[in-house]
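Reviewer 2 asked us to include a model.

Predict the structure of this chain.
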Amino acid sequence: MEYPECKTLLRITILDAWDLPQLSTDGSTDPYVEVSLRTKSPSGAKDKYTTSIKPSCINPVFNETAELPLKKEDE
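Predicted model (structure tokens):
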């Protein structure tokens, strides 16, 4: 089976979140989103994407796109 390397990209758009819990004692929160893939890698490394941090925000708007490479898994 041939594996097309050029078509192995996962694209995810992270739009927003709302009504996040206030986690600090001053009533604010600094949210971010982290997206990762579980892949079979000899080194154990994972591909991941982290959005920017939105300081003191319980309704953050990220509007960011993550692109993560997909790898052929050993069968």
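The radius of gyration is 17 Å. The longest strand covers residues 61-69. We have added this to the supplementary material.
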